[in-house]
What does this fold into?
Amino acid sequence: MRVSPRFIIYLSLFAFLLSCKNSEPETKTTCLFTGKTSIFEYQAAHHRKVTNTIEYDQDAEKRLKTAGKTLVDEASEGTEFVSKTTDATVYSFTYDNEGFLTTMVTRRSILFEGSEKETYYYFDKLYKNFRLDNIETAVFSYTNGRVATVSFKNVNTTKGDNDNPIVLNTERSKKYEYSGDNVVSALLTAVSGNTLTSFSGGKITSIQQTDDRGNEGSLTTYNAQGLAATVTLGPSRSERKYDANENLISIQHWDRGTLTTHEEYEYDNHENPEYHIPRYFKGIPDPIVTVQSTQGANNLLFQRTKNSQSNITFENRANYQYNAYGLPESVVLTPVSAPSNPISSTTFRYKCP
It folds into this structure.
């Protein structure tokens, strides 16, 4: 079996696409969320167990200090080892004396240990053992208290089986444009293409990606809440709707003008602890998303996905246990049709008085 990097990165079905509002939410509880661990098991060609862990730490000024996420995918046949992939990312932040973010270092490593039954696919080659290490350093500069530029330096090292390590160095840059005191746009320039972020009234209105040949890629437009409303890529398009608490309540996917899937979500009235992981930094108008895997102010209770072409519907329900502060302590996600067969289980961690 071939295992691609894309499979590893996007495997966790219980993670949501992030859409961030252009303001920092007010904390309602004295408990500090420090992380969570989710476990997802299923049977495919082999039995698979996926463990997804996130954690973060703040400094005395409640600024994001470090954040990390680790995904471990283990495959087995009975007691026989098939493969194990560990994908870990750690973010670290440095600030100046005025509280401005000066550097953000992102370290990511992927370690694959395989067997004859499962190998790792990377750039047209298969490996039984593979390792990727990536370090990206972002340096922020400011003018009159507003971010002016961000420079990115990336070092990517890969090694498969007995091959010699391959080291690739790349650079990117991001430049912000202002009209008076108002941010107008931010252009991220890279060898692979550009990303143009447009703003109005201090909020993101659109993000347009373009490849190195000038061809337009995905276009994301944002609503008045500052949340992603539509995503268009070629003939494909998705439309998203939210409630007043920024909870995603529906997604419709279209392909060449035909509705293909419709997703619906319902939520509890308890606080989503991930909602308060810092995303906004002093003097920077757009969010920096790190380890968040959910969005909105509340916690998912129910999800329904209907395939319009096959007329097949999947429904899942989340069952929570809450602590004395009303925060989720644990949750089990189960299919409505088979409540005794859980899809995933999650435990939450806090620092409480």
Helices lie at 5-9.
